[in-house]
Amino acid sequence: MGLFSKELSNVVEWKENQPEVLFWKWSNSEIKKGSVLIIRPGQDAIFLYNGRVEGIFTDEGQFDIESQIIPFLSTLKGFKFGFNSGLRAEVLFINTKEVLCKWGTKNAINLPAAGLPGGMPIRAFGTFNCRIADTMTVIDKLAGIRQMYTVSDVKERIVASLDQLLMSWIAKEGHDMFNLQADARNIAKGIESDLDMDMRKIGIGIEDFKIESFSYPEEVKKMQEKAAAQSMIGDVNRYQQLAAANSMEKGGASGAGVAGQMVGMQMGMALGQQMVNQMNLGQQNAPAANAGTLPTTSPKFCPNCGTATTGSKFCGNCGTQLFQ
């Protein structure tokens, strides 16, 4: 008889092969004598009998149902297993961990914009965390009719209301339509508050809602890039300086085009002129530099004009002092 009863026993557990599942209902119709309950980290186990909550167990580990679980069930404390009958109860496993979910707008959201009758179409995407915040509400609103509830179910409900929330919070704060990314954090916090309030109606909490990026039509992106470039350049002189520096950095690549070649020529001319100026300055300073280092005897030729000397102290042609 002992062997036979062991064969009838159950292992009531949730192996949680799908981490995105928020709750899962153990589906066997009967819990047999000798069965055990296994609760893993991040799980709670809830015993339901005739749709009512009989006990909530949060400690992880392995428990004998007859001796360690049934004595704590509300109306089943005195339940006795029969040889051919077991306990007809449901066990609901709750995932107590936060679960990360990615979201994105299904379609472009048309924001009201002056001069655009249809509005400015934008898209957005990001992430949020969700978790079961109220177990009793989940049991009342969802568990009675669902075998499991997943992050995909949460995402479907959130995305359905996301378009209106985005439009509302962008318009509410008067954000710059062309610089929404700068206000993404504030917009996300407002949306998170509204989503959390709505989802708690079914026992689900929404936390850490983030907008990672807003996406504009390609034409708007090009206009933004052009405006940014013009703002950076500022004036023609600065443009020429930047173009010259860019040309030098590229090392005169053949693909630079006519404009690049012109810039390179201008840079070459400027560098050449600078060298000439330095040479002229050196020649002007040469006599002054040499004044304090004259030889003590007369040289054969004048160092200034090259005329042959006759032993006199000054050059007969240009008058330059030849020695001390």
CATH-level-4 superfamily name of the largest domain: Band 7 domain
SSE pattern, N- to C-terminal: HEEEEEEHEEEEHEHHEHHH
Radius of gyration over C-alpha positions, nearest whole angstrom:
43 Å
Number of helices: 8
Q: In which range does the helix fraction lie?
A: 25-40%
Share of β-strand residues? 15-25%
Q: State the CATH class of the largest domain.
A: Alpha Beta
Total domain units: 3
Shape: elongated
Structural class assignment: alpha+beta
Question: Architecture of the largest domain in CATH?
Answer: 2-Layer Sandwich
Which strand order do you get reading across the main beta sheet? 5-4-7-2-11
- Low-confidence sequence ranges: 1-6
Work out the number of β strands.
12
Report on the architecture of this protein.
The chain is α+β, with helices and mostly antiparallel strands and 324 residues long. It has three domains: 86 residues; 118 residues, 2-Layer Sandwich (Tetrahydropterin Synthase, Chain A), CATH 3.30.479.30; 31 residues, no CATH class. It is built from eight helices and twelve strands. The protein has a five-stranded antiparallel β-sheet with strand order 5-4-7-2-11. Helix 7 crosses helix 8. The radius of gyration is 43 Å and the shape is elongated. It starts with a helix and ends in a 34-residue tail after the last helix.
Please name the defining characteristics of this protein.
alpha+beta; Tetrahydropterin Synthase, Chain A; four-stranded antiparallel sheet; 8 helices; disordered N terminus
Write a brief caption for the model.
With 324 residues, the protein is an alpha+beta fold. The protein has three domains: 86 residues; 118 residues, Tetrahydropterin Synthase, Chain A (2-Layer Sandwich), CATH 3.30.479.30; 31 residues, no CATH class. The chain has eight helices and twelve strands.
